[in-house]
């Protein structure tokens, strides 16, 4: 599904730039990041924390979409939109995070501990970089 | 082109073997007259080399022909993707970067050549490749690494850089998000 298909299906809609909502999403994202970073992560619960880390990133991506005037209702469409409107959005990396999260949430795949830790680290690296570049004015 | 691929498949699978018209007709389940016409046409286009021996006309792959090699590269990629190897690697390595390199991406590979596959993933534990080796009828050389920059062998680096990415991207210089790691 590409960006045009997302628009056609109503999964991307034009919206007002709502600064309060953007702030709220960033705040919730930070709460989730903090929950992951302070958790006692082990090889049993790593999958759950990876999924939470992804949610934290997704909230920032939603905030980013709203800051550009778009409400996006699907994960795939978030990626499709951002790769079209941001020059430096690492779509391949985001798509991989999405794949990992879907493997956990929908297919019950258990993530290897080291791999999970690495992916969580990179999820937060992407999240915080995007906040720094695009959303710092809203904080 | 797909009709040509149907006949050329035999020569892609066994590039060093010579086939006569009757063999091709039998394997492809087509009339010998049709096989003869198709093979002549492929030889005329340079995909195959034709030679006579006693009362037989023999055909073999023309590895030096650029058009042959272009289609062979396409065939190799398609064959790997259709085998389900990418999906299986995705399940184990969570959608890693996957690249094909070596002779398979030059189209010069033969039935005894390996498929050299690079996998970039945080997880480097083994993958049960035997099932796919059987499916592909080739040995699989899997190079599973965490970071492209971890490779020290210059020859291998050059081979990989000249490969074809089947999934994801190979990043020698990382984005700033990753440099912060």
Describe the structure in your own words.
The complex is a heterodimer of chains A (139) and B (181). Helices cover 71% and strands 4% of the residues of chain A. By secondary structure, chain A is mainly α. Chain B contains eight helices and seven strands, in the order H-E-H-H-E-E-H-H-E-E-H-E-H-E-H. In chain B, helix 2 crosses helix 3. Chain B is elongated, with a radius of gyration of 19 Å. Mean pLDDT of chain B is 92; it is low at 176-181. Classes of the chains: A mainly alpha (139), B alpha+beta (181). Chains A and B meet through helix 5 and helix 6 of A and helix 8 of B.
Strand and helix layout:
The complex is a heterodimer of chains A (139) and B (181).
Chain A: H1 3-8, E1 12-14, H2 19-37, H3 46-67, E2 70-72, H4 75-85, H5 91-107, H6 113-135
Chain B: H1 2-13, E1 19-20, H2 21-28, H3 32-44, E2 48-53, E3 56-61, H4 66-82, H5 85-93, E4 97-101, E5 115-120, H6 130-136, E6 140-145, H7 154-161, E7 164-167, H8 176-179
Parallel strand pairs in B: 5-6
Antiparallel strand pairs in B: 1-3, 2-3, 4-5, 4-7
Helix pairs in contact in B: 2-3
